[in-house]
Amino acid sequence: MNVEKLQKMAGSVRTGGKGTMRRKKKAVHKTTTTDDKRLQSTLKRIGVNAIPAIEEVNIFKEDVVIQFVNPKVQASIAANTWVVSGTPQTKKLQDILPQIIHQLGPDNLENLKKLAEQFQKQAPGAADAAAAQEDDDDVPELVAGETFEAAAEENHTS
């Protein structure tokens, strides 16, 4: 092996400068499982209970909705603590609005008004086109002095 490379590796494990002793053991990093165990023990101490059969959880933030599908939900009513675990999906409010309209409370009424205003600002040309199309579907107005009966008689005679 290369001597320079070995000396460089040996120098990286020294605790101090040149001439000091080497570390006796390598530093062990904590894994995320210990954090999860600590979290579960804290939740157990609070007294959370699992709530079964929840299909979907939506957390509303401004124009964004954080959506959990089939999450694991735990709650402690006494501690006013809810724990939702699962894979979240961040979506825009207007994308999932038809499915969640029944979930919106009075506090989200203001967000709904803002969203409606944004739609009106974004599509003024689309509203005009829709109005023009509606005008095409209406019955045309009669020319002054003509009636339907007179026009029908003219068609029969010609």
TrEMBL record:
Which InterPro entries does this one have?
A: BTF3, NAC_A/B_dom_sf, Nas_poly-pep-assoc_cplx_dom
Residue ranges, annotated region (Disordered): 1-35, 120-158
Matching CDD domains, A to Z? Answer: NAC_BTF3
Question: Where are stretches of biased composition, namely Basic residues?
Answer: 20-29
Going by the UniProt record, its keywords in alphabetical order are:
Transcription, Transcription regulation
Task: Determine if Zinc is one of this entry's keywords.
Answer: no
User: Membrane: is it a keyword of this entry?
Assistant: no
Record-annotated NAC-A/B domain positions: 33-97
Q: PANTHER family attached here?
A: TRANSCRIPTION FACTOR BTF3 FAMILY MEMBER
Q: How does it assemble?
A: Part of the nascent polypeptide-associated complex (NAC).
State the protein's name.
Nascent polypeptide-associated complex subunit beta
